[in-house]
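Annex B. Sample input.
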Amino acid sequence: MARMTVGERREALIEAAHQVIADHGVEGATTRRVCAQAQMPLASFHYAFESRMALLAAVIDQGIPRDLLSLADEIRENTPADGLRGVEREVTESLQNLYNLMVVDSGRLQATVSLALYSHNNPELREAGRQMWNRLCAIAATTLASIAGQHGTAWIVDPDDLGPLLIAATNAITMTFLTTGDPTTTQHVVDGTVRWMMSYAVLDSIAEPATG
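Annex B, continued. Sample output.
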């Protein structure tokens, strides 16, 4: 077996930690259990991370699915402007992509939710949890601004302020799926979120964004 670099070892431990947290919870994610999941000796752990908390912080840092990071880029330049219908289509596709990620990798999402809650009560991880929230909100704001610009529309609330509301709504979708495991119920929440988001969308010529 080829010798692993430090970077490769870190990635393997992070991926293993996601799975262990999904299966055993954050408290159950011991370094021994994570190393066993990654199929590497316990003694090699400290070549990659100085502590268990450092590993958990890295897991939080990579808690946002990589596919989600590219959602804003999926607003293609050759997509024709289509007004409010285009906005509804793009919002629907973005939320549907998120739902598809849940189905494919529900364990990662479950681990991310568990870590977010754990970080709130753990001073060593609180900042990492806050940064994850800020990144999610930034992704949402960028996506919303891209959608509006593509279709000649605007939001009646600034995208930077609307982004956190969208992330809160996606959290509701995530919890519905993780709690019920019911595609029909989850899809109902997705559809309701689209209708709610469209209540903020207007044609650009009549937009009067709210100010603080």
